[in-house]
Amino acid sequence: MKKYLISGNKGQLGKEFEKRLSMNGEEFYGFDIDTVDIANIDQVLAVYENIKPEFVINCAAYNQVDLAEKSEYDAYKANVLGIRNLAIAAEKYGGFVVHYSTDYVFDGTKGEPYTEIDEPNPLNVYAKSKLLGEMALEDETDSYLLFRVSWLFGDGNQNFIYKFLQWSRNNEELQIANDEISVPTHTGLVVDCTLKALNNSFSGMYHLTGSGYCSRYEWAEEIVKLANLKNKVIPVSKEIFNLPAKRPDFSAMNNYVISNELKIDIPDWKETLEHYLEDKILLV
Questions:
Q1: Which domains, from first to last, does the chain contain?
Q2: Which pTM value belongs to this model?
């Protein structure tokens, strides 16, 4: 039986992996920073030596995009040093690493969905740290799967849907950016595709997102419609929020390569969102 090690198991993606692996009867071990700090090479080597996993799935990340502008060290420690250490340990003990990056590695000027061969050009500290993490992984091992994902949502409060629903309870009108475009992607899709890719011995880098794309405003409008909310959503430029971190205008990614190689049809983000909200019993 395969043995999995999941770092960042308290986050929304880590939780989804643990749920799915448990349902599948797989052997797995999860940890978060309170028990193992992946930025500490000694701790990483110790947990590897103790468990000797076949696969390590890194769901740990520093993803506070705006805070990263002032906490550069924290972002680089988690997003660069952490994955480097996991890759070093995997090389030493013969493991295989799965890691997740972001659409934010692109500058958003292409005007159409990015492919795996497009050149990254990150605009903020968080995005730069994620790109350097990709490079650190590739430098330390050839035994890896790297997925760039976007606008993840699942169980937890670190996603746009949770935050929007919180805002909707206190505000009749909500201003949402209509000039920030990408692809909402459910954690369940990421887990399913990751495990299928591992079962088929995939390696290398892929873009893994839902299908289609939308603005934050369009995403919010769809949530309002599906959850039967009464709020009015007002489209505005993201510039009015004066956020510390610069974001790309259009960072949607093309999922053709992974869907073609896995021989699957990845559903449109609207379809996935509807199923997600139904599961949350938000539809009435």
A1: 3-158+185-213+251-268 (3.40.50.720)
A2: 0.93
